Amino acid sequence: MNITYKSIAPVFSSACLAAGTFLFAACGGNNANDDANGTSSDNGLSLKQLVIALKANKNPEKMLAEKESLEKYLSGKLARQVKVIIPTSSAAIVESFKNGTLDIGYLSSTDAARNLDDAAASILLIHLKNGNPHYNSIWLSLKDKDYGSIEDLKDKPVAFASHSSTSGFLIPTWDLSKRGLVGPKKALTDYFAQTIYGTGYVSAVEKVLNGEVEAAAVSDYVYKGDNKYLSDE
Question: Pfam families from the xrefs (predicted)?
Answer without folding.
Answer: Phosphonate-bd
